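To: structure desk
From: M.T.
Subject: fold request, one chain
Message: Could you run this one when you get a chance? Sequence is below, nothing fancy, just the single chain.
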Amino acid sequence: MKKTLKDGPIDPAFIADSIAKHQHKTNIGAHQIFLGQVRADQIDGQEVVAIEYSAHEEMAERIMHEIREETFEKFELTCMHIYHSIGRVEKGQICLFVFVSSGHRRAANEAIVYLVEAIKARVPIFGKEILEDGSHVWKENTPLQ
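Reply: Done. Structure tokens follow.
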């Protein structure tokens, strides 16, 4: 099983390196990338400064693996990478990196939407939004927006 949970924010250099490693794969005609970033939302007049992510890690990894396998069965993909942060991620930093590749754009486009929605709906990862005064609010996932 490929490890998908990553301590702290996902570094842009890691994302760039992941993309660069696919240049030699000439059977790929399309890539699709989703990057989830921590927003500086306003809650009760205070700005969100970070999100502290936690998870039932063993279960989260197992479900992420199931979603990955389902997606490979459902779409004609050549490659897939999923990484979700655990721990504190500051506003503006990347907390979710999903990268799919396929021979053609339709499969990549449809797969990325399917993957992100499945991850948000099924994987036991929890976000505690940290506010300016140090208090927190548990984050709720919302349907596709």
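Reply (cont.): The chain is about 30% helix and 40% strand. Let me know if you need anything else for the meeting.
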